């Protein structure tokens, strides 16, 4: 299957993408991984992206599109892929259509993970990270540490990242509504959007997603 995964920040896209890609035996292609791979390998696209990032500017669509096109042409992605973080706007969605059309293939589904805005804020703003080890992550509501502000694993101090503050989260949501949400309407017009609730246990959301994708494939 060829799938695009969309949803607001805090919807659990990265987690679901990993599970779904494994269940469907297709590669999980995330924008973050594309950038890191191209920059670390010193590709032309990576160098161009790095130049913009070093200046604190947004990487132009054509660079991101170029990276995605190159990744989708690799052998492991020829029979399907799951895109996470791309396309990010309607221009990128149109470019993706062009790429697929040139290969005589098409998308099977656009999986939209739906989460109420207040829940997104609660999920992200409640996150606390260990200063000693960033992989040690807690949550004030869903996974609180035994002692407030102290990592259960190593005893390090827990803190809230700047980009996890409520104000920043609401700004990120505004960007999502303005730039990314329109691609849902774009794909809905093509009959590709499958919307599921991303509330509940991770395994329940994965199960919901797999069932919805199966229905869309049969339909």
Automatic annotation (TrEMBL):
It comes from Streptomyces fulvorobeus. CDD domains: ADK (cd01428). It holds the Pfam family ADK. Pathway: Purine metabolism; AMP biosynthesis via salvage pathway; AMP from ADP: step 1/1. Residues 30-59 are annotated as: NMP. This is Adenylate kinase. GO terms for biological process: AMP salvage. Its main location: cytoplasm. ATP binds at residues 10-15, 127, 137-138, 200. Its EC number is 2.7.4.3. It is an enzyme of class 2 (transferase). Catalyzes the reversible transfer of the terminal phosphate group between ATP and AMP. Plays an important role in cellular energy homeostasis and in adenine nucleotide metabolism. The keyword Membrane does not apply. InterPro entries: Adenyl_kin_sub (IPR006259), Adenylat/UMP-CMP_kin (IPR000850), Adenylat_kinase_CS (IPR033690), Adenylate_kinase_lid-dom (IPR007862), P-loop_NTPase (IPR027417). AMP binds at residues 31, 36, 57-59, 85-88, 92, 161, 172.
